[in-house]
Specification:
By secondary structure, this protein is mainly α. 48% of the residues lie in helices and 11% in strands. It has 6 helices and 3 strands. 13% of the residues are buried.
Amino acid sequence: MKEKHKKVMRGTGVEPLSSCTFLQVFEEQNLSLYTLKKGECDLCAAFNYGDLSQDQYDIHQQKKREAREENDSDKVSEECVYIMDLQSGLTANEFPTIITSFVRSQLPLPDHANKSILNSDGCCYQDRNTTLSNTLLPVAMTNNVVIEQEYLDKGHA
């Protein structure tokens, strides 16, 4: 953190604080550093620090369980399930184009499948945009196929 401070200050032409002063200001501001545990989402961390009510946490945990159960059942279903683990970097227009092209390439569906299921981690803004739904709609209608979009609860992919 101190090194980041030095770099930022030097970039602005201002002399960085000494280590002693930096720590003193840090403590005076009642700041602390915390690294999320692997797999711990923002809401779980907020609950662990007392910043989220028990009711909100219980709802969050229930959503997490339901999403995982749905995800597990999809993995063993006869349907065509495509699981996406997204990273940021694609625009809200690029992502739908890529996904729609992929879905088209998988048609026609195998005889045993009645629909395509797109299962996403729900972390990136690209997942839930209306452009994706609107680009998938004509594919579904033209090919007489159901395309279902599912999202895991944020933070629990």
